[in-house]
Amino acid sequence: MLTRCNGAPRPAAVTTGNPRVTAQSDAYEFVGVLRGDRLGIYLDRFASNEPVTDARIAVTVGGDEEVQAEAAADGTYTVASPKFAGEGPLELIFAVTAPGGDDLLIGTLQLPAKAVATAPAPARGTPLQVLQNTPSVRLGNIEVAMPYVIAGVALALGFLLGLVARSRRKLVPVAGMALVVLVVSTAYAFAHEGHDHGAETAKAALPAGDTPRRLPDGTVFVPKPSQRLLNVRTTLTKPEEAQKAVSLIGRVIADPNRSGLVQSINGGRIIAPETGLPRLGQAVRKGDVLALVEQALPQADRTTLSERVGEIEQEIAIAETKLKRVRQLSDRGVAPPSQVTDVEIELEGLRRRREIVRQTRIEPEVLLAPIDGTIAAARIVAGQVVASQDVIFQIVDPKGLWVEALVYGEIDPAKVTGASATAVDGTPLKLAFQGFSKAMQQQATVVQFAIENPPGNLSVGSPVTVFAQNGVSIRDIIMPRDAVVRGANGEAVVWRHTDPERFEARPVRTEPFDATRLVIRAGVAEGERIVIRGSELINQIR
């Protein structure tokens, strides 16, 4: 393919500090920047603006000199030629050989004209030119140019002479002489003033540098080095067919099968275990001891337990005496051995009953972790008194999170085919539909989704925006959300890559599609290059 830098009408050229040559084709886009006697080449892919760093470029300079471009470590290429020291237009042919395809591009490098040294003009000329070197005069705190001083003195002198000669009827000749002096002085003054303004105009006409800036027509000039620094990427727009999505308000909840609550059955005073109370974010295993609860017993219950312990101890004393007597009779052969065994069993049972009653009075309740997970909430400290069924710990598996959203009639929950969500910080979430409620809550239907591979910074209770697909197909241009930014007047705009180093803002009308993309309803045509990465940075260039 052979491509030149001409064809369709192009916008006005941008004034830069270095001569440039640009060209583009269906496959590649390049910009050459001349610095001294070396031409730096920036080669990018036309559709994506991605730098091409693995190409071989042969450059034909002026039609008769072929030079192989040298690849640099920063992904650019350089070409050196003595013809770059000339002036005027210089034809360049770039033969690109790369794994992504070969191409041939042609451009013209406009070399600057050489400055011509001129000798200083001699101090000769018309009287008006000689008078331009007259210095100024300071009157108090005001500096007045000498021509104005001369004009004022001449005017006063003429007026004075006119009064003196009025009686002799010579007013007209004298006034005419004063008018001549005044005209000459005024001409001198304007000539000197014009000379100063010409110097200021020359200073203002200095060429602009190779820096990003907004141009008078509203477009933005971004040189290729800045595009590489800002990591600008583009895409060619084309209509796509996909399912329309509806925006819903939701929040993050825990998977009921991968979360749990730790509560006390009877309540009491919290006692820290030997390993201490667990902290927030600590990973625990199922069965780990999280805390102890010392049960609070009323005084009546304490009295009843004490009496029961006394009764059991009395029965134990009677059983021990009976066992001693039966053993003596058994040793003499009077009582059978079975009676000794029966008394021993009775005594062992009484001792166990006494131990159970004692443990009931003093043994604390042990709180265990119901699942493997992370401590998501802890609302206790050592010594705190908790009531029955108070939530003491909440354990959540960070890999098992759901999203619960409310549907107010926007879509039929039974027709949801897919969904995605966006967290508060903009993190996209991929969702899997789980089900919806048959009972209304606050005039809305509750719909639940499972988060696939949730990020580590997501917390239970965080608000999210859900984009649920309802099965309705649409065909339009779909762009990433990062491509759409807000202009100075607040309208949604995208940046169109019109030329290798020029971008144009396009107002667009959008609709939500999913967590990461938008549907462009108006403002962009098929086949245009739109910035999809770095648009926010381009939008800030002034």
Present the secondary structure layout.
Layout: E1 2-3, E2 20-24, E3 28-35, E4 38-45, E5 56-61, E6 65-68, E7 70-71, E8 77-80, E9 88-97, E10 103-111, H1 127-131, E11 137-139, E12 142-144, H2 146-165, H3 171-204, E13 213-214, E14 220-221, H4 224-230, E15 233-236, E16 239-254, E17 259-263, E18 268-271, E19 283-284, E20 289-295, H5 299-331, H6 337-362, E21 365-368, E22 373-378, E23 385-386, E24 391-396, E25 401-407, E26 418-422, E27 428-436, E28 445-452, E29 463-480, E30 485-486, E31 492-499, E32 502-507, E33 509-512, E34 517-522, E35 529-533, H7 535-539
Parallel strand pairs: 1-10
Antiparallel strand pairs: 2-3, 3-4, 4-8, 5-6, 5-9, 7-8, 9-10, 11-12, 13-14, 14-32, 15-35, 16-25, 16-29, 17-24, 18-20, 18-23, 19-22, 20-21, 22-24, 25-28, 26-27, 26-29, 27-28, 29-34, 30-31, 31-32, 33-34
Helix pairs in contact: 2-3, 5-6
> What is the end-to-end distance?
37 Å
Strand order of the largest sheet: 16-25-28-27-26-29
- Characterize the overall form: elongated
Beta content: 35-45%
Derived structural class: alpha+beta
Largest sheet: 6 strands, antiparallel, barrel
Number of helices: 7
Computed over alpha carbons, the radius of gyration is 47 Å
Count of strand segments: 35
Helix content: 10-25%
Poorly predicted regions are 1-9, 121-134, 139-144, 163-208
User: Could you tell me the mean pLDDT?
Assistant: 79
Short structural description:
By secondary structure, this protein is α+β, with helices and mostly antiparallel strands. It contains seven helices and 35 strands.
Descriptive notes:
The chain has 542 residues and is of the alpha+beta class. It is built from seven helices and 35 strands. Strands 16-25-28-27-26-29 form a six-stranded antiparallel β-barrel. The two termini are 37 Å apart.
